Amino acid sequence: MMRKKLILACTDCGSRNYSSESNKAVSVERLEIKKFCSTCNAHTMHKETK
Predict the structure, then answer these.
(1) Which CATH number fits the domain that encloses residue 20?
(2) What pLDDT score does 32 carry?
(3) Measured distance CA(31)–CA(50) in Å, rounded
(4) What torsion, rounded to 10 degrees, do the Cα atoms 50, 21, 36, 48 define?
(5) What's the confidence (pLDDT) of residue 1?
(6) Angle at 19 between CA 13 and CA 22, to 5 degrees
(7) DSSP string, 1-50
(8) Measured between alpha carbons, how far is 18 from 16 in angstroms, rounded to an integer?
(9) Count of Cβ atoms closer than 10 Å to residue 20 Cβ
């Protein structure tokens, strides 16, 4: 298995809203995506958590 399951957390409120998959062999740094947070009710940056 070369794919790894990720959990994305909002940088403002810390809620864990999204999950995704990533290729371990290609990506080294943590993923950051701007997505909608229903808790903040706005588009915020979401970072990969452990």
Answers:
(1) 2.20.28.120
(2) 93
(3) 11
(4) 20
(5) 64
(6) 125
(7) --EEEEEEEETTT--EEEEEEEETTT--SPPEEEEEETTTTEEEEEEEE-
(8) 6
(9) 13
User: According to the model, what pLDDT value does residue 2 have?
Assistant: 80
Asked whether 50 and 16 are in contact (CB, 8 A), the reply is no
Q: Structural domain of residue 43, as residue ranges?
A: 3-49
The number of folded domains in the chain is: 1
**Which residue type occupies 15?**
S
d(CA 30, CA 44): 16
**How does pLDDT run across 1-50, given as a tens digit for each residue?**
688 899 999 999 999 999 999 887 887 888 999 999 999 999 999 999 97
- According to the model, what pLDDT value does residue 6 have? 92
